[in-house]
TrEMBL record:
SUPFAM superfamilies in alphabetical order: DinB/YfiT-like putative metalloenzymes
Top-level taxonomic group: Bacteria
Protein name: DinB family protein
InterPro entries for this protein: DinB/YfiT-like (IPR034660), MST-like (IPR007061)
Database matches in Pfam families: MST (PF04978)
Length: 170
């Protein structure tokens, strides 16, 4: 695996720091998937779990979509991979599911997230509300939550990648 990630400057302002760490963790997940076949990317961590690298990428596309479209800007953006009937649909993969599609969807959601976030100051409150709690969030909270979300799932990605081909690294 090649490592093209860059940590944010140690003296960056708060917004640059938060967005830098978010991008770092986005890049980490991409790096963990690098060089694998679709079949390997669909490989579940351990039975009976359906957790796979491709599933994690699809999940993060949904998470980006939820926080930066639905909550931050109150956009009516339905789910891509899951449904009310199958809340974990992003993790249920078939041979028809491809890395090219999952990666393109994820990157498109990241680009929308960046554009939407650019319209807000860190202290600005979201236009939308969380669908379960009805709460509003400021952009600082959303960025911090996304860093946590990626960091947690990158830990999963580390273990899955090591199981697939023995590759390790932070």
């Amino acid at each position: 695996m090649t490592n093209e990630r860059r940590e944010p400057a140690t003296t960056a302002d708060e917004r640059t720091m938060l967005e830098g760490w978010l991008d770092y963790h986005r890049q980490t997940l991409a790096w963990k998937c690098e060089g694998l076949t679709d079949e390997q990317l669909r490989t579940a961590a351990v039975e009976p779990s359906t957790l796979s690298l491709m599933g994690l990428v699809r999940h993060m596309a949904e998470v980006e979509r939820s926080w930066y479209r639905r909550v931050l800007t109150d956009e009516e953006a339905g789910p891509v991979y899951y449904s009310d009937e199958d809340r974990d649909g992003e993790f249920r993969l078939t041979e028809a599911d491809t890395w090219a599609e999952a990666y393109a969807t994820w990157q498109a959601e990241i680009e929308v997230a960046r554009r939407n976030a650019a319209r807000f100051a860190l202290d600005d409150t979201s236009e939308g509300k969380h669908r379960r709690t009805g709460e509003r969030f400021n952009l600082r909270w959303i960025h911090t939550h996304m860093i946590e979300e990626y960091a947690r799932h990158n830990g999963h990605a580390d273990l899955i990648r090591e199981r697939i081909d023995g590759a390790t690294g932070d």
